[in-house]
Amino acid sequence: MDRPVLIGITNVAKDYESASGPIRALDTTSLAIRAREFVSIVGPSGCGKTTMLKIIGGLILPSAGEIRIADEAVTGPRDDVAFVFQNPVLLPWKTALENILLPIRVRKTPSREEIERGEGLMRLVGLGSFEARYPFELSGGMQQRVSICRALIQDPACLLLDEPFGALDALTRENMNVFFNGLWRQTAKTVVMVTHSIQEAVFLSNRVIVMSKRPGAIVDDVAVPFPDERRPEIMASQQFGQIAARIRQYFTSSALD
């Protein structure tokens, strides 16, 4: 892959303070993520996956090492990085379009062009007739699409996803995986996703980063060689099963002891 490195993680570690002393959540970690890559991070609970995501996004600072995005050091939250969380976190008293425009409205009144961009994003995710609907009028999958539009409204270079489909039922989650694959291909964003689903990680990603139990460290970097366009049928293929099995071996009871 000849695309430039967009996210550079160099010797990053994170310690949290506790009553009994510092706890190392993330061990010394280095990773390079190229522009337009879709990278998933998997690992056991408490291994530092979300900590890594927050450090990339500038929400917390590392105890050691450095994060650079577009060759600029990350020292705090950035306009070119957006988060999507497990829960949509929509304001119930605002319409879908008003929720999407919130990142702009906290700084200024949205322009006509920005409003039209929000409407265009809603059409892109299949919600073109739902601009005036309130969150309680939308299904869980539709609410998450609104949340994704809100993340995209300022055209960030990077999307950071923290279990974005974890609260959905199995069928809706599978449909959202197919939908998001299409959205990623259309928007050409660099995506880093934390997930507990190995199947989801393999289906959506170009690479899957496997982390050990705490203190989290990278134990494998698995390339996913499928074409960018993913269809559900690939999950039944032998190659898909082999990739998933390679990742799953790290999470057997013996491997976690």
Taken as a percent bin, the fraction of beta residues is: 15-25%
**Tally of alpha and pi helices:** 9
CATH architecture of the domain at 5-80 and 156-256: 3-Layer(aba) Sandwich
Helix and strand string, N-terminal first? EEEHEEEHHHHEHEHEEHH
**What would the principal axes of the Cα set say about the shape?**
globular
Major sheet strand order:
6-7-8-3-9-10
The residue ranges in which pLDDT falls below 50 over 5 or more consecutive positions are: none
Query: What value does the average pLDDT take?
Result: 91
The biggest beta sheet is recorded as: 6 strands, mixed
The first-to-last residue Cα distance is 36 Å
Structure description:
The protein has a 6-stranded mixed beta sheet with strand order 6-7-8-3-9-10, sandwiched between helices. Strands 2-1-4-5 form a 4-stranded antiparallel beta sheet, covered by helices on one side. The chain has 257 residues and is of the alpha/beta class. 32% of the residues lie in helices and 24% in strands. It has 9 helices and 10 strands. The longest helix is centred in the C-terminal third of the chain and has 18 residues. It has a domain of 177 residues: P-loop containing nucleotide triphosphate hydrolases (Rossmann fold, 3-Layer(aba) Sandwich), CATH 3.40.50.300.
